Amino acid sequence: xxxxxxxxxxxxxxxxxxxxxxxxxxxxxxxxxxxxxxxxxxxxxxxxxxxxxxxxxxxxxxxxxxxxxxxxxxxxxxxxxxxxxxxxxxxxxxxxxxx
Length: 99
What we know:
Blueprint: H1 4-10, E1 17-25, E2 28-36, E3 42-46, E4 54-56, E5 58-61, E6 64-66, E7 72-74, H2 80-85, E8 92-95
Parallel strand pairs: 1-8
Antiparallel strand pairs: 1-2, 2-3, 3-5, 4-7, 5-6
């Protein structure tokens, strides 16, 4: 079975750069920006809610995630430029599966 990182990079037609996607897990959905680097690194930022003081980029390696090295955004829902990144139709729906 492919890892989450492999499924994000290879199974949904995403391109290098930023892609608007929807993650699903047990009936729940989260809109996110997935950034695939030129060397294949995968970083994600979920859409900040109006009450979220902090949002951060998290890296996907294999089936694990971490926020080490990711940028932190303060009051992201109040940043018009950031909110604009989440507008539009997601290019892919990526299920998060239990192992």
